[in-house]
Structures are given as structure tokens and as C-alpha cells.
Amino acid sequence: MLKNNKIFKTSDLQKLDKYTIENEPVTSLDLMERAATVFTEKLLIFFPNSHIFNILAGSGNNGGDGYVVARLLLKKGLNVKVFGLHGNSVLSPDCAVNRKRFIDMGGCYIEVKNPDNLQPDENSVLVDAIFGAGLNRPVTGFLGDIIRRINGLSHPVVAIDIPSGLMGEDNGENNGAIIKADYTFTFQFPKLAFMFPENVVYVGHWDVLDIRLHPAILREYPAAYYYLTEEVVTSRLLIPAKFSHKGTLGNTLLIVGSYSMMGAAVLAAKGAIRSGTGLLSVHVPRKLKEMIHLSVPEALVEVDRNEFCFSGVDNLSRFQAVGIGSGIGTSPVTAEGIRQLLSVWRGKIVLDADALNLLAADSGLLELLPDGAVLTPHPKEFERLAGKSVNDFERLNKLSIFANQYRVHIVLKGAHSVIATPDRRLFFNMSGNPGMAKGGAGDVLTGVLLALAANKLNLLDLLRIGVFAHGLAGDCVAEKEGRRGCCAGMIAERMGEAWKRLEK
Questions:
Q1: Euclidean distance between CA atoms 289 and 455, whole angstroms
Q2: Whether pTM exceeds 0.85
Q3: Rg, Å, the chain Cα set
Q4: Closest C-alpha among 424, 392, 451, 427 to residue 273
Q5: Prior bond to 25 cis, omega within 30?
Q6: N- to C-terminal Cα distance for the chain?
Q7: What is the pLDDT of residues 447-500, one digit of tens each?
Q8: Residue 482 CB-density burial (10 A; 0-12 exposed, 13-18 middle, 19+ buried)
Q9: Are the CB atoms for 121 and 93 separated by under 8 Å?
Q10: Which residues contact 444 (CB under 8 A, 6 or more apart)?
């Protein structure tokens, strides 16, 4: 498993390569050989029964990678053909060397001058080596026509490092032609663009390949983006001591539920109970307490003055962390109750669902948030807080700015839920699956994070652990029940299995 969990900007790639070349030391040609070798190994794992490979090679170092892949495949006795898509461009030095090596060993090479002359072999796997990660402009003209032709074919397409035409940081102007890859095998770390829903049609399934860039530069070079792996999470997880008891494992308060939304309250409570909180008090409207007693007997029940909605809490002194929002509604009485809560509570707090909608409706409440408050919106809830975004990249920027402005931590829920910190770092989660895109899954997460908030973890660690573990529980459900059959209640029930895997 890769130890580095940084996502570097594509503008930093040359510096990372240069450091490796100078300090390993290794030649640039040998580094290209290394990268292409691990790519080829992965390619043949995914296509073990394929015997025909067509490489689409550009003029830069990505094209050079393609020529090395072609040579390695040819050495294995496979049917390989390279289509040179250079146009009038001068080949990079390493690309020129590897094209010559491929041709000198008898490889089939066809230079394409007209898009209509690109005729891939029937039943071939296409390997995209046209443009690498350093692209900073939309692809148009001859190569744009080539890419559109490739996208119109039924052949499986595998991209080397990044689909050609996709910009690594995605500046919101991906209006040129972009390869629609079925698979992308990327070098050393994922590209930021892979994290955006709008790019899944181009990236397809992606894997990270370790090409052994120098560990010192990976460790020391600064990054603003990170991705969460099981290794990262397990290294930060605190295991309860032998003589722990309910008083030492945290006393938490969960403020949830209203007359029509008690299901959200139950799911959040189950998420907390199954994530290690020593004592959980669930604050619900007076008339609805029996539902918690019956559904979550492990929880203490604290009743509100109001019969059907949240209106306020009288005593917070015994709690280490508070969670609020799941199913509380947005009535004026509840809005006043949350104002009073935020006016006095300065400890750890997790806000979700209707608590976020109340913040969006009254910006004055945002000013009352204690430093380090945790907000867990889905994209629509975040839009209400920060305004609309034209694309995912702009939303990511707004997320970072918002967290910094209000000194809060934000978990923007989605396929790669992203944690934003007040110091403008962003962490993308790698666990979870589409089966979790069901109502109530976010309520379970609220409970999970609340439980961890009282476990003496710092805010960033509890968020990294909680978000990953929640996704891992969803993966446990999918493994046994399938994605379609996954529901929020199953995720809550499988939290124990997720913790067992992480505490190994």
C-alpha cells in the first residue's frame, strides 16, 4: 500500500521527477521505463485474455510512456500497434528515444495525419498516451478530432496517468475534447480532477501505481490536498485502554428528531452507539421519547420542553460533545433553540441537516459557531450556505474559503466526501460506494462523528477516522448485501464490523 497520501498539483510533477532523478539517482529514461513497467503489469492484470493492444502516442513524455508500454507488450509476444499522433509537434527527447527503440525492435508504427485514417484493430484495447497531466489548455484541432473519434469507438480505453484532454486541477474550462477512458492507471498519487463527479465519465475506474518517486520529496514537499486510506486512519485510531469505563469513553448529547422525522433521530443515535461513545443522551421532543426508548435502548433519553420539536437545552455541563440537526425541522421555535445553544456552547459540536438549513437561513448564527465546529452538508445544503457553484472545482474553492472564514471543519458528503479544515487543507475519502447514496446515511455519520468527538481525538483525526469508517461500513454492507440493497440502517448496524477491521 502506498504510504504517501498527498495529492500534488500537476504543476509540481516536474519538481518531483527532477528531485528523484537527481537524488536517487536515476535517469529520466529509466524513470519512464519504471513507470511504464508498472503500468503494463497493471494493464495485463485487467486484460489478461487480451492479445491486441493499440497505443495512441502523443509527442510528449506521456507519448514516451506509451512507446515503452508498446515495447514491453511486444516483448511478451502480444500483438501491438502504435499510432503516432504527433502532428507537427517536435517529440520530447525521451519520447523520441523510446519511439526509436520500439521501431528498431520491429514494432508496428503508423503515423496518423488525418483523423479518418485512425483505424484501430478489431478487438483491440486502446491505450491513451496522447497527453499527460501537464496539459493546461483545451484540446482542439487535429488532436481534438482524434479524441472525438476515439470516444465514438466501442473499444475499451485505458489512460496512462490521466485521460488526455483532462486538466489535472480542472480549472472549470474543460471545454475541449477529452478522452472517455474506461480505466485510468495514474502515477504515484491521484489527480485532483479524479475527485469530481463531473469527471467520472472521463476517468472511469482508476488505480494509483507506485513508481517509487523519492520518498523524501513526497514527504517534505507541501500539499494542500490529501486522500484518506485505511493505513492513514488506523495509525490515528485510539484503542480504549483496559480499564476504560463509560465515564471515560465520553458523554455525548444528540439533539435530533421532530414529529415527522424520528427515523433520522434513531439512525443518528445508532451511529453513535456503535462508534464507542460511553454515554449517549438523545434529546427529543417530549411526546416522542418512546421511539428512542424502543429503538435505541442503550441511549439515555432527555426530553425537550416542547412536545413536538426542539426548543432548547437547559443543562449542558456534563457533556463533552454535542450533535444536532438530524430531523429537527426548521420551525421558528427550533431556530431560537439553536441560537440559544450556540450562544453558550463552546465545546465540540457536529451540525447536520436541518441545523445547517437554519444556519443558511440566518447568517447571524454562523457568527456564533465555536472555533472548530463540524458541519456535515451534502452539496445542496452547502449551496444554501455558500451559494451556487458552476462546477465541482469552484465548489471546492468555496468549501476551502468557507471553512477558513468561519474557522470550522466541513465534511462535504459525496462519492469522495471531502473534509475541509480552517487552514485550507482538503482531505478526500477513499472508502464508501454508490449504495450509500440513500436517505439517512448522513444521519448515521452524524452519530459516528459525535461519538468520536468525545474520545479525546483532535478534530482532524476524528473526522478522518469517522468519515473513513462510515464509508467502510457501507463497503461492508455492499460486500454482503450488494450496493442496491444497502440502506442507512444497515450502515449503522455494520459500524461494528468497520471498527473491527480498523482496530486490527
A1: 26
A2: yes
A3: 26
A4: 451
A5: yes
A6: 16
A7: 999 999 998 889 999 999 999 999 999 999 999 999 999 999 999 999 999 999
A8: exposed
A9: no
A10: 267, 268, 270, 271, 470, 473, 488, 491, 492, 495
CA torsion through residues 88, 90, 95, 100, sign: positive
3-state secondary structure of 1: coil
* One-letter identity of residue 8: F
pLDDT tens digits for 289-298? 999 999 999 9
User: Any bridge partners for residue 183, and if so which?
Assistant: 158, 205
The three-state (H, E, C) secondary structure of 236-293, written as one string? CCCCCCCCCCCCCCCEEEEECCCCCCHHHHHHHHHHHHCCCCCEEEEEECHHHHHHHH
Cα torsion at 393, 398, 403, 405 (round to 10°)?
Answer: 150
The residues, any chain, with a CB within 8 Å of residue 458's CB and separated by 6 or more, are: none
DSSP structural state of residue 57:
E
DSSP assignments along 73-142, one per residue: HHHTT-EEEEEE--TTPPPPHHHHHHHHHHHHTT-EEEE-SSGGG--PPTTPEEEEES--TT--S---HH
Cell matching residue 241: 485502554
DSSP state, 370?
P
Helix residue ranges, H only, 276-353: 289-295, 332-344
